[in-house]
């Protein structure tokens, strides 16, 4: 079936905005629900994008959003979802956003007769992963892939690009702090450019071989967190001494940050960083896409 109308849930965020621009330029008609229309103001001028203020957690609202759609892309994700109560595998925020919402999306799609679902999870998500974030993402994947729909899952490593909240955070911190005490300095990442993630998702719409598949999505090179932070300091012109914290101090810093408004870091993030956020050998991007090096892009947005 030819896909023309797409419900893009979570389309106002960092990845979603890139994807919306790309799909709109390719002529797809996009319906973009958001909790706050203000969040989508950069996307309002796009000719084929319809922004709707809506609560996607309400099954009746979700059903309404599905009308006349040929496919659904779900990008909704959070990094801070609270801690699970006794016996729970993750906090209620993670449950609501990463598991229950996909269940509601699948149910609404089946009722509406929409069959194609693209879903973004996270690299190293797994049922036995050390963090609630990764365990809940794994459960969301299972919901999607076990739905019987024509589903494709994407599992990116950390994503970089203009407006990212990862490299930009370390650029901002080095601008204001004389030294940087860094938790988990040896944590490993294989950052992937936002344009490459958007391309992978967009291309899969026309690739029947992607049905039922789950793709790890990574950049061309692995780095430690310390290497990334030092690189960002050098490129942004605010290179500071980076003091790598021991494991115990990293945990304590993550715990202390839970009391600081803004959700910069939590113990759950510390647990996520205990698994290398890198692809297994040989894998990088689907559909023979060539991954963009960090160094080819980061300078353009970190130098201000
Ligand atoms: N960025 C990364 O480095 C990275 C790495 C691996 C995986 N991922 C995954 O990729 C996806 C996109 O990430 P991103 O960086 O683009 O995220 P983002 O910038 O934080 O955007 C998140 C999107 O989800 C929506 N959203 C957030 N919480 C919601 C809630 N409780 N209910 C309904 N909608 C909610 C937001 O919509 P409104 O605020 O407009 O309502 C926004 O459109 C996520 O699933 C994330 O877990 C990201």
Which features would summarize this protein structure in a list?
two-stranded parallel sheet, globular, single chain, 13 strands, binds NADP nicotinamide-adenine-dinucleotide phosphate, alpha/beta, 304 residues, Rossmann fold
Task: Characterise the protein shown here.
By secondary structure, this protein is an alpha/beta fold. It is 38% helix and 16% strand. It is built from ten helices and 13 strands. It has helices at residues 14-25, 59-66, 92-112, 132-145, 167-176, 194-204, 225-236, 247-257, 267-272, 294-302; strands spanning 5-9, 29-34, 49-53, 71-74, 116-120, 150-156, 159-160, 180-182, 188-189, 192-193, 214-217, 223-224, 242-244. The strands form four sheets. Strands 3-2-1-4-5-6-11 form a seven-stranded parallel beta sheet, with helices on both faces. The chain has a two-stranded parallel ribbon with strand order 7-10. Helix 2 (59-66) crosses helix 3 (92-112) and helix 3 packs parallel to helix 4 (132-145). It is globular. The N and C termini lie far apart (46 Å). NADP nicotinamide-adenine-dinucleotide phosphate binds at residues 10-16, 34-36, 39, 56, 75-78, 97, 120, 122, 156, 158-159, 166. NADP nicotinamide-adenine-dinucleotide phosphate binds next to helix 1.
